[in-house]
Amino acid sequence: MKACPEIYASLKEGLRYRCQTEEIIKEMKISDSFRSHFIREILLPLVLVLLITFSAASFTVWWATSRSNASAEAQQQQIIKTSLSQSLEEMIIQHRSLSLWDPLARQLALTPKNTAWLNQNVGSWLSGMFGHQLVYILDANNQPVYRWENGKNVSATQFAHLQQPVMAMVQQLQIPRQSGSHHRDRVDFTLIDNRPAALAMGTVDGDNGQSSRFTLVSIKYLDSNYLESLAQRSLLKDLRYVDGNPDPNGANWLLTNKEGKPLGHLSWRPDAPGTQMLHVIGPLVLVVVLIITMICVVMIRRLWLSSLKLSQSLLQLSASEAQAQHLAFHDVLTGLPNRALVEDRLTQLLSKLIRNDEQVALLLLDLDRFKLVNDTYGHHAGDDLIIEVGHRLSHLVREKDSVGRLGGDEFVVIIDGVHSPRDIQQLCEKIIESLGRSFTLLGSETWIGVSIGVALAPQDATDRSEIMRKADIALYEAKSQGRGQYRVFEQVMDESVKTRQQVAADLRLALQTKRDLAVYYQPLMDISGQKVVGLEALMRWNHPVRGPVPPTEFIPLAEEMGLIIQIGEWVLREACRVSLAWPELTIAVNVSPLQFRASGFVERIKAIVKKEKTLPSRIELEITEGVLIEDEKEAQEIIKELRQAGFRIALDDFGTGYSSLNYLSHFPVDKIKIDRSFTQSLGMTENSVAIIESVVKLGQAMGLTVTAEGVETSSQMSALAEAGCNQLQGYLFSQAVPESQIVGLLAPRKAG
């Protein structure tokens, strides 16, 4: 608590706007209880009453509309039923006007029959007067002796399509009438050629009341004319016959015969008085609902504002105090505990270890490639990224554990009550996986990573400062091993750090005195392996105590210490001097990413070459993909300037990056050097030859020289020659040698 004023003052300086925003947010949080009470006691009951009222009104309108529509449809169905019955009764009456006519009976008794008379008095009568479309007269054997169809007399031989419905009704005619009359007739609906029709049939009787041997048959199809007439009489709209399933969008009546056999459906567009009523009263009801709702909203808003002002006045003092407390111990950007609170919690947990015999784990986290995000998207996007990282970390730990931000892109996680090292390993893996997923910044996806250093108490340390130092050592080890991973502190790491510090001091001294450091040269051979076409300048360090130190160890040290630019320029000066002695050879010089991105890099390179009085065309600058990744546009401009000055550009370690092929189309390079890992895989892994051949073809198609590194065996050399490589480099020909041995390196090959 004593540190609160100092911490608050430091946060306030330069972050005043952000603090004001945090104060507003804090006040809103303090008012949460009031809001909950207001919503629970006032708003929800009122909304519930409105919902019940509106729901009841809506249901009533819907019920009335549906009931009215259903009643109207039922009435129309009854009208259809009555109209169809009347239609059949009218048809049988029309039929009897002939079947009971004595002249017809006498005419049919004559042989031969007078067809002209039948046409005029039977066919024309039923067709023209009543619209019967088919008229047949059957003999005693139920075979047609006369046929009238569609307004004219036709041959009576075509009768097969009427056989089934006619014979079914003939059987019904054989049943005597209850009245005792000899005359028998029937009328019913049926299907003829899959078309609905009204079929009337009756015996032809004379005046004496005796039934003759003949039967009169007449048919009216339920076609469009029939249905239109029926619709006009029944006041129906769009009446039509539907074969099969009823029309789901209209009203339907199942057409059956007197035996109940279904013959299809009659469908029509039903009247909907309920819907029409709804169209009239619906807008009015909606307007009333909106007015009532607006009145309620205004009332609620006024009540809310009045209550809120009162609540804010009561809570203002406590909110201000809580805000000051929060700012003193929490990070302004993420709201996570800051360094002061983290150290306080860690101290408390370490003090309990003596009494509780528990373990505490301290995780230090450093985001990978965070600077690239800031440089690419800006600091606002970087702030958004930091906030999202804090959220993801908070979701991965238990409630009793602590997640804090130390500053910049550094986070800390404190785990209390560790039971097993495996628990910490699993947590680290979850953190790496979570932060390895993409982040969306300014509408674009970007990826970062995280390196984690872990220290455990009490085995590593019981003092707060000491355990943080050892966690930092483990973090450094994780970053030096390639980032995106975690390391648990081991005692050997502490010793390694001390050794590394001593080696770094020795390297600085060696560079100052120019002792123990030297530039060696490895030859680049033509594809035959007999001719040296170039040299690569390589730095070597022969430590006076430790002996030869590999470049993989001292080059990263030089980059960390800021010495890599001096080393790179020293190698370039030596390469320029050697190029004067062997002007026919190209001297390759490696360029560090830090050196490449340093301000004024192109000017310094040109100045060195000019001072050494050699030609830029004799110098080949080798850059790695890492140089191109961070700022593609700037890298393009630098490479363009170097090539305009006359330097050759080679892309080193080609194939190891995820987008190397893409760089060839964006950056004007002269050569690609296939990474030694591909060369070493020849004969060891499948498709290794195919991969190299593809790279060679790509390079040659773009007019580039292709060099293969790491050639150590004759079989590798043969495979690379068959693949079409232009140059070779490796221990098969020679290791890197000092300047004094270059003559011996060239002489035998010239002699050979």
Question: Can you walk through the features of this model?
Answer:
The strands form five sheets. The chain has an eight-stranded mixed barrel, surrounded by five helices. Strands 3-2-1-6-5-4 form a six-stranded antiparallel sheet, with helices on both faces. Strands 11-12-10-15-16 form a five-stranded mixed sheet, with helices on both faces. With 752 residues, it is of the alpha+beta class. It contains 25 helices and 26 strands. Strand 18 (532-543) and strand 19 (547-549) form a beta hairpin. The protein is 54% helix and 21% strand. Helix 10 packs antiparallel against helix 11 and helix 14 (491-513) crosses helix 15.
Q: What is the fold's blueprint, element by element?
A:
Blueprint: H1 4-12, H2 16-30, H3 32-99, H4 102-109, H5 115-130, E1 134-138, E2 144-149, E3 152-153, H6 160-173, E4 185-192, E5 195-205, E6 211-221, H7 224-234, E7 237-242, E8 251-256, E9 262-269, H8 273-329, H9 339-356, E10 360-368, H10 370-377, H11 379-396, E11 402-407, E12 410-416, H12 421-436, E13 439-441, E14 444-446, E15 449-457, H13 464-480, E16 486-488, H14 491-513, E17 517-526, E18 532-543, E19 547-549, H15 551-561, H16 564-581, E20 586-590, H17 593-597, H18 601-611, E21 619-623, H19 625-629, H20 632-645, E22 648-654, H21 660-666, E23 671-674, H22 676-680, H23 688-701, E24 705-708, H24 714-723, E25 727-728, E26 737-738, H25 742-751
Parallel strand pairs: 15-16, 18-20, 20-21, 21-22, 22-23, 23-24, 24-25
Antiparallel strand pairs: 1-2, 1-6, 2-3, 4-5, 5-6, 7-9, 8-9, 10-12, 10-15, 11-12, 13-14, 17-18, 17-25, 17-26, 18-19
